[in-house]
Write a structure and sequence with these properties.
Length: 426
């Protein structure tokens, strides 16, 4: 790549596509093609509410191929919708890649996407306006699969009900996602997780009222740490090298500017600091998250890699090392005072996905970040009871609650101090 030479829109999408292609290629090496096909079938047929590790269900290769294909599909949808390449293009791709390792598959995402398309058609608005809502909203895909398993009807009726529910979910997502954003004011980056948690609570409550119970589960792969330490180090290290090849030492100044940002929802580092600095930020955050997991004794598997990729994806739209580290250390410190260990499955996911609260640390400082992480670890491990693991963005729902709780209190304290310094009447 020539230094500072602008890339066309097609080349930008093409370069991003190298990440899912890397995953597909690695998956094809790690598992035989026949086994991958069988594994994909198992992944599609299996209930996939939290926590369902596709490494166990279909095998490592099948899980990686499933993730890579769905990430490519999301890129293709965004490309042909006419959206320009920006930070959310990267975020949506990495979220689809990460969560397709433990919840999203080649079959269960389409009804929700179609529902968002229906919403755009109904309001006579171009699909490109809501395309990211559709991609993020596939976090509710487990509901589609679960309905196929819990309903006691003939296959055709179950399929029709599942598709109808998916369409309804997709249709209500855009207005709800817009509305709930005002509640946390952008201090939780996983806004769709908050909206999805509300929808999942309503859907699951309806199911339970008809006597249909949804049980949480734990399918968790172990023994892949060395393999993925290598694969992820190569990937994230390659990002860092690419950033320096693109801009040379000049990328460092832009990266420092990223560190200065709050990271509140709506941030786009591609537009603000350029692609090279954004890629550098992604690579650094990816290495930090990967080795943090390894350092505290966590497993590198489908769910945790999904968490790492979520951090990396949002490194284009709000996260950087200064605002994620306090949150993660807050969760880690919580493990010394609570009944669980940080390396257990649910706390490990809380550790990674707690970075939805990065803007809290970005604006209010390290101590606020530590407190946010500490509180998040408790909320995230309990809110899933509301919807039985049907919202893959469980930490987005928890993060929204913590932000709504913390931010007004912190702002009121800060405002009081400001008035006191100004000798104003309180």
């Amino acid at each position: 790549m020539q230094m500072d030479k602008p890339l066309t829109r097609t080349k930008q999408f093409g370069l991003l596509a190298l990440v899912p292609l890397y995953f597909i290629g690695a998956g094809m090496i790690l598992q035989k093609p026949a086994e991958i096909w069988t594994g994909l079938v198992h992944i599609i047929r299996e209930p996939d509410f939290l926590i369902t590790d596709y490494f166990v269900i279909g095998g490592v290769g099948a899980a990686m191929v499933n993730a890579g294909i769905l990430a490519l599909v999301s890129l293709i949808i965004v490309y042909f919708s006419g959206r320009e390449f920006d930070g959310h293009t990267i975020t949506s791709c990495f979220l689809m890649l990460g969560f397709s390792l433990f919840g999203k598959n080649l079959l269960n995402i389409w009804a929700i996407l179609a529902g968002v398309c229906l919403y755009a058609w109904y309001h006579k608005t171009h699909l490109s306006r809501y395309i990211y809502v559709g991609i993020y909203g596939t976090c509710l895909s487990p509901i589609i699969t679960q309905l196929m398993h819990v309903l006691e009807f003939p296959f055709g009726i179950r399929l029709l009900i599942s598709i109808t529910v998916g369409l309804m979910i997709g249709f209500v997502l855009p207005p709800l996602a817009t509305h709930v954003h005002y509640a946390h004011k952008g201090y939780s980056l996983y806004n769709m997780g908050f909206a999805a948690g509300i929808i999942a609570t309503v859907v699951v409550s309806l199911l339970r009222s008809f006597g249909m119970e949804t049980q949480s589960r734990l399918i968790w792969a172990t023994g892949y740490d060395r393999l993925f330490l290598v694969l992820l180090t190569v990937l994230f290290g390659g990002m860092i090298v690419t950033a320096f090849l693109r801009r040379g030492k000049g990328v460092i100044s832009s990266y420092r500017n990223i560190w200065k940002s709050i990271g509140i929802s709506g941030t786009d580092y591609i537009k603000e600091q350029g692609a090279a600095a954004t890629i550098l930020n992604m690579g650094i955050n990816g290495l930090f998250a990967t080795y943090f997991v390894a350092a505290v004794g966590g497993d590198l598997n489908g769910p945790t890699i999904g968490g790492i990729f979520t951090i990396v994806g949002f490194s284009a739209t709000g996260k950087h090392l200064r605002n994620i580290a306090p949150i993660m250390f807050g969760v880690y410190l919580a493990s010394f005072t609570k009944y669980w260990n940080i390396y257990e499955p649910s706390p490990m996911l809380a550790l990674l996905f707690s970075t939805t609260l990065a803007p809290v640390a970005g604006e209010f400082g390290v101590l606020a970040g530590l407190l946010a992480g500490y509180l998040h670890s408790s909320v995230a491990l309990n809110v899933g009871l509301l919807y039985g693991g049907m919202n893959l963005y469980n930490n987005g729902f928890a993060g929204g609650i913590v932000a709504i709780f913390m931010v007004p209190v912190i702002q009121s304290i800060r405002d009081r101090r400001a008035r006191a310094k100004g000798s104003l009447s309180l």
